[in-house]
Fold:
Amino acid sequence: MAELSKKDRMKIPRQDMPVQEPDARVRNFTEVALGFSKEMAQLEAQRCLQCKDASCMEGCPVEVPIPDFVGAVRDGDMAKAVQIMKSKNNLPAICGRVCPQEVQCESRCILGKKGEAVAIGRIERFVGDYELANKTYAVKKGAPTGKKVAVVGTGPAGLTCAVDMGIYGHDVTMFESLHTPGGVLVYGIPEFRLPKAVIGAEIENAANALGIKINSSHIVGRTLFIDELLSEYDAVFLGTGAGLPMFSPIPGINLNGVMSANEFLTRVNLMKGYLFPEFDTPVWVGKKVAVIGAGNVAMDSARCAARLQSLGMGNGGPGSEVHIVYRRSSEEVPARREEVHHAQEEGVIFDFLTNPIEILGDGKGGISAMRCIKMELGEPDQSGRRRPVPIEGSEFDMEVDQVVFALGTNPNPIVFVNAEGLERKRQGTVVANQETGRTTLKGVWAGGDVVTGAATVISAMGAGKRAAADMNEYLKGKTAW
Amino acid sequence: MHENGERIPLTIADYDRKAGTLTMIFQEVGKSTLEMATMKVGDEFKTIVGPLGHPTEVENFGTIICVGGGVGIAPVYPIARELKEAGNHVISIIGARTKDLLLWEDKMRAVSDELIVTTDDGSYGRKDLVTVPLKEILETRKVAKIWAIGPAIMMKFVSATTEPFKVPTIVSLNTIMIDGTGMCGGCRVLMEDGAKFVCVDGPEFDAHKVDWNNLLSRMTFYRDQEQAATARWKESHKCNLDRAVAEGVK
Ligand SMILES: Cc1cc2nc3c(=O)[nH]c(=O)nc-3n(C[C@H](O)[C@H](O)[C@H](O)COP(=O)(O)OP(=O)(O)OC[C@H]3O[C@@H](n4cnc5c(N)ncnc54)[C@H](O)[C@@H]3O)c2cc1C
Ligand code: FES
Structure:
């Protein structure tokens, strides 16, 4: 492409992502964002000013050399872009789709100061998809070291650690409690946001190239134990995530129709309940659904519910509604901006500054309504956000027949049986060194949501990568425990 | 069972470490169990995972009662066997709707000091619900502990029967489950002290602390879909004979 002047480049508008139209997409589970064409990716890449001290990179938890890969895309050298990307990030097709770029790399982009940031995430996705289609890059297994490594959990943290350990030449075996690897990427994040085929392809490519063994349906802490792993393997990585759902401590949470987002999303995504009865797992949706919380998990639940309603499942059909019920204001919404926007387009209603206090029964085991109280924002709390406080006397009943709790999750303690010496914090998260991932139990590293509590895909990947680097040093005898 | 299958919880009825086998007993009640019944020796499940939950605590308690109802007789069997081995005086009460549905009578007899058999319709043994002989025993003898496994409604009534006698009663719950790892909470049961996850905290619970009505109601949540799936499966798997007969009539 001809070299453009800086001024001309500044005139190019940020390229919009082609999407499925809202009224069509609420009736299917296929991907909403369709991806850039090569031309769009190149045009968007032209906008990058190729800063010397690129501040976007500081916003990336795994330090992808952003200007370099964007430059390669601009020049049309996609294979080079893939190579640059993969030097730091093994899963660009996934990260390009789910990373909260607006608070990471893109938030630091100089262009964003006056206008709109370069759409780094969309270009990243283009590079990832290009690689999946064209397979230009092959990871290579390092010379065998004779060391055996066990990786528990196949989410982004475990996968990243396993791949890097494979590249270092170690013999890697993964253990996963569910029947399919991928962690939250397969059981939580819906098909319309992250197609299962993308994850499957990424995992298969890496596992085949590096000879990684994946043992599904192995629950560490039940069917085998950490101490057993330690006697069989030279190092153990725990990337078991934060899978334990939280419910509000309010009356009525055991009524039919009240469920955790994990249950709802697992039925829909992992078990493909939206294809019932082709697939055997049933899923039910209400006529008026309240999703409690406003993170990515809440948006995914709400958007799945809207789709099931449009497909006429459960009590769905014409006149159905989905509400996001959030005790803080629109300012504090933690979900990715794009997801909030898509949810709104799909008709999801947002009830801010509203908190449930009781779920009322219909006398037949189901739900008739949810009693809520209005909130106002008070003084900032520990998180720096203004604390929501109830407005006295503002209680009201919201007529609903389904309530989905998406309030966040803690680590599932099941894995910690027979792991004496492995310290945890009050919330159940594992104590681990931030730089190295080392836990308080010799030979065990940990990273991702199991250490931080529910966070992001990319931070889990970063932790997996740092732990792998330290494990490798340790296994090669370069550092002591 | 296969790529399109669902995950269902089954209780282990017996195992043989040497042979490397597990025995599970299931009744054909819905789509998945109907389909399982069509499997032949050598067929494979896509995946199984377990054992999950906590094992039964076995010691010498004295005189104990094991109550098994319907397919619940199978999982109560290894408990009775272990308790007997630990030196308990084991009284077993097993019941079924009708004679044909009664299983493992001989196996149960072999591990029990006393065995009482009931059927709802009187086609075999006593014509009673299991709770009737249970109450008779509790009225006359000192019992240290009771285990009951069977349909939820039976366990509810066993619980109600033993509660006035204040005999500790343990039930093994089999709620609706998906993952079996504590990740979804779909299996939760309301206990006196809050909700518990059956897959992780169970399967055994203190019967007198279970909110039985809530449990029974939660078990029915997906009934419409389950019935539709079962009907659909039966329709597409009508055996050739059925079809031939139906066509012949036409
Ligand atoms: C619905 C939803 C939407 C999200 N959306 C986004 C998003 O858009 N962007 C983003 O950046 N982040 C998002 N997140 C967060 C992100 O997915 C997580 O932070 C990330 O997946 C954490 O990775 P992990 O590898 O630590 O754990 P996980 O992905 O949770 O993987 C852990 C794995 O370990 C397995 N496991 C657990 N216990 C055991 C055991 N005892 N034995 C064996 N295996 C075990 C689990 O089954 C699981 O497969 C979302 C999360 C959810 C739930
Ligand atoms: S089955 Fe999901 S938590 Fe028990």
In short: The longest helix of chain A spans residues 457-475. The longest strand of chain A covers residues 367-380. Chain A has a mean pLDDT of 93.
